[in-house]
Amino acid sequence: MSASENEHLVDFTDFTDTGSSRKSNGRRSNSANGKSTVDGHKRHRKKSNKHFQHKKQKLNIDFVLAAKNFDRYDDLTEKKRELDYLRKKYFHNLKKKRLKISKPFMSQDEKTYFWHVHAPFDVLADTAEDLNVRLPTVKNDIVVMLWYEKLTKRILEWWNKKNPFLVHNSYFSKPESYFADNFDKDRVEEFHNGNNPEKMFSPTERSRIVAYILESTKYGDNDDEIGKDGLLEKGVLTAAYPIHDGLLEPNENEPLLNNRQKLSREWASFGQIFKYQPIEGIKEYFGVKIAFYFAWIGFYTTWLVPASLIGLIFFFFGCLSNLWFIPVQEICNAEKPFFMCPLCDKVCSYYFLHNTSCTYSKMTHCFDNDGTPIFAVFISIWSVFYLEYWKRQQWSLSYEWHTMDFCEEEVVRPQYTASAKKFKQNPITRKMEPIASKKEQMLKIAGEASVVLFFIALVIAALIGVIVYRAVIFGILIAADGRLRKNSKLFVTGTAATINLIVINVLKLVYRKLALIMTEWENPRTRTSYEKSFTLKMFWFQFCNMFSSVFYVAFFKSEFFVGYPGNYRRFGTKRSRLEGCSEQGCFLELCIQLVILMGGQQLLGNFVEIFWPYLQKKYNRWRNNIKSDENMTVWEADYQLAEQEELQLFWEYQEVVLQYGFVTMFVAAFPLAPLIALITNLIEIRIDAINMIKAYRRPIAYKSEGIGVWYDILVTLTTIAVLVNGFVLSLTSEFIPRLVYKYRYSPDMTLTGYVEWSLSKFNISDFSPDESPLNMPEIEILQTHVFKRVNKTVCRYPGFHVNNESHEFSMVHWYLMTIRLMFAFLFQWIVSAAGRILAWIIPDRPRSLDLKIKRQEFLAKEALRNYKIKTGKRMPEAENVSEEEEESDTSESKRNSDQANGTTPETGNPSNRDNTDNAVDQDIRIKIPDRSASTMETTFLIDPEKKPTSPNYSFEYLTQML
């Protein structure tokens, strides 16, 4: 290769020529002008940039394709020939679609080829029309100040100057707002930057359009051999990605920071953890779909602030109220001890309540206090407000980002096309498209349902295993002496929750692989339907997996399921009994379970997110023998980064949505859940930002209207949360028993005597030989102090039972159960009704946004009208009308009325065109009988430029029907 050829890349018609006349590994060097080549392929220059030379033109790199260099191996000739054929075929088809592709560049380690892909403006414009891409037109001239905005304008201006959470002197200023319209190549000058084609399409828009072309281009002879994904699966390509704006660190050749470096400093840094995110900068760099995720998690985190503060207030109130809370004082009073029944068979002895439950009861009251129901109601209302205002925010963002009416035509997945046995004509495009058999789809859904049910059964089996562990370990520890016995409940709860967390993640990894296999087997038609199918299967399984143990502790550890002295539920050959709740219920145990699952899952997820991309990057550099970035181009540096999987955003959404479930569903048991969520989200945002900027390749900037199916899942969780909180308050909390005792059974309307009232009596003589304790160590120790005042013939246990041999539930128990269930359903009904009323009152879209939408529609219609007048396709309105013309129009109108049943007007009559123009302005639709079928009608929207497809009708015939 000569120096001149080496300076400028030759025509891309030769890009697949890999030089078959190489010797050995085919390597040779040419140092002309300081450039080096390998096998006739140009090595990258030391200066990294985002352009490449093509026919002496400097073109943007819109996409990079990478493939292995098989020329280094002599034993892969047949495979190389096959892969080369597919690559050549694919590149040839890309050439037919007018994409510009560079000659291959060689990597530093000579193992990889890189091709640069560029889309000329004409290609971008044509594809943008096909995809209904909306581009900005004119500046948004609507300024709406609502009454509360006028009142708070000065306050907000002052606050923004002092706001510590706002990034002052930001790299990303607030962009100007524009109206948008579907791109029309014939009206290009009406769009923003219409006179500068290079700036009309943003880099993210360019990469998205090029990605669409790459995904819809065939690479083989069969119809199912289509798209870059198929080439990646076959190993023809090793990577396909848009490049980052540049290297992470600025150099002397680039005095100005690029967008990647700006985001790295202002967003992808823990130093900015308490600052607002530059959402507009994220949107411009990563696209709308990713920007919606970060906008949503940022919005959610902001709303967690008031919930966290109020949760802290109720928590500290509960802890402080221990000083005067009567039941806690009664439990901790050693002068009036309660002689309690043993917690296990034989090896466990009788004990005094104040010795084992004083600290436990104080900790429980921090969470289960008089403020708990109020906080549960608050969170239920908070969740409604949060979802409604996010919906408004989502509408506003989708309008500002021009995706409100996003209806991009998706490519049918190659896997769907390959498996389809039937083809059907698309009524819109008139093309034959693959269609799956309904019977086959139903069979697949049934098969998937059986697999999902099987894995849910595995979740239940794992839960039973944890329950058995709790029972066995608790029995061992309670028989020990010292601290092990005293803290046995806390130890068993903590270790069981940790084991459960490990089991949850193991099952998640297994089911993740299986869910991908099932979704591939189901074979959805498009990427959107693929993501939705996978999301629903994976999320609801993980929901059952994550919350099963929490539901068990909250609702299935009561005496109704565990039993009571003389009637314990037993299992196994040794007749072990299930572990029950403490005298204060399962509230504290539920809190511990929530802390370990919620906090532990977040910490584990953050650990994986931090180290996994880092390890991938290190592995890629080791595999490719990369020791320094000094002479590395931006596209090769990006190649060393970790590749984002197709469903990367799913895992991010799932992590936060499951956290939202903890915050809303069990907040009655754990008011600190919003605070933990707030802290973990602040960390999560920065970890995700660092990974996006520094650890991952730049993703394709896909568009979306919002957060998609996740909003529906959030609404479902909010509905479930109201019911769950109602049952937690009624069944798990001591709120209802304390309320009933205070206002029905207490002689002085206080909680004095509540502990005595809530404990039943059991005759020690009624214990069977297998249950009766072998010794009484605590009683022997305390014999000289309290034991003399204790009735040694009976022991106490929590619950409401009759004091006879049957020990059945008493009437108080059933009365309490009735009140509990009534409260649960009333709570659910009242709070849900209040939430629905609030959701109905709050408009889905801001009033100012409605005005902007109407203004945009008006401008779009005006632009189309002016364009037709400009091109002569529509008659302009007359500026001055003389008296003679008015008289002529009156006479013409009279003649037309006399000829109501007469002949067709002449073709050149301008009144027909005027009538049609008015019909266009009013969006009039007319129904016309189809002459080819007596019973059929066709509906047409009157538009002079969109004449009916039926040859039986002329345009004049249609206009006459007006």
Structural description of this entry:
This protein is α+β, with helices and mostly antiparallel strands. The chain has a domain of 150 residues. 53% of the residues lie in helices and 9% in strands. The chain contains 32 helices and 23 strands. The strands form nine sheets. Strands 1, 2, 5, 6, 7, 8 and 11 form a seven-stranded mixed β-sheet that branches. Helix 18 runs antiparallel to helix 20. The N terminus and C terminus are likely disordered.
What structural keywords apply?
cell membrane; elongated; 7-stranded mixed beta sheet; alpha+beta; 9% strand; 23 strands; chloride channel activity; 32 helices; transmembrane helix; Anoctamin_TM; two-stranded antiparallel sheet; disordered N terminus; 962 residues; disordered C terminus; single chain
Gist of the model:
The chain has 962 residues and is an alpha+beta fold. It is built from 32 helices and 23 strands.
Q: Tell me the Rg in angstroms.
A: 36 Å
Termini gap: 71 Å
Tell me roughly what share of residues is in helical segments: 40-55%
What number is the mean pLDDT?
Answer: 78
Major sheet details? 7 strands, mixed
Structural class computed from helices and strand pairing: alpha+beta
Number of helices: 32
C-alpha geometry: elongated
Tally of DSSP β-strands: 23
Low-pLDDT sequence parts: 1-48, 903-911, 923-962
Strand residue content? 5-15%
Family: Belongs to the anoctamin family.
Membrane topology: Multi-pass membrane protein
Biased composition (Basic residues): 41-55
Transmembrane segments: 290-317, 371-389, 451-478, 490-511, 534-555, 660-687, 708-729, 814-842
